[in-house]
Amino acid sequence: MLAFTIPTHTRISAIEFSRKARALLDRFERKETGDLLVLTSKGQQETLFALEHASEGVTAPILRLEHALHNFSAFVVMPLFAFANAGVRIGGPIEHAEIALGVMAGLIIGKPLGIAAAALVTVKSGIAKLPDDVSWASLLGYACLAGIGFTMSLFIAMLAFDDVAPLGAAKIGILAGSLLAGVVATVILKTIGRNVNGNQ
To answer: What is the pLDDT, as a whole number, of residue 130?
Structure first.
């Protein structure tokens, strides 16, 4: 019900914002005092505040609210929802640890290798080619992201196991494997990103 009350219109149009922004940027350059410090230029400070006000005017309140809540929703609400939905009991010895380890291995090793192998076969056979900005190392990093499997993995686990103990072990393996897959993918992609930026 609250969503119906959030305005979607803006105070100024995109065309009007473009005109104001260009004028304000020109004014910002004219107010430069020579030391390249905004702190010492009252004119530049006023221009920045005017540009901020114009940006708020062209942004619908619903978009500002969505942007403000994005991190909280993505990194707090969704993980809590995932844990609550999984119904995993944390603590105590893990029964059927081999099931948890098998699920983890499938997410951390199996899915990335399967995706990378399928991509390699597809490229080598000439069916497709890698995009210009994508290397095999970065593709492996993206493949590791696929190890963050949650909803479908839980669905398959519930189909595979009827007993509570094996299903609980599979759920723990899914959570741990998804977390580790995300960490591995982050490390690979950040390392590649640093190497690319260092070579430029």
So the answer is: 87
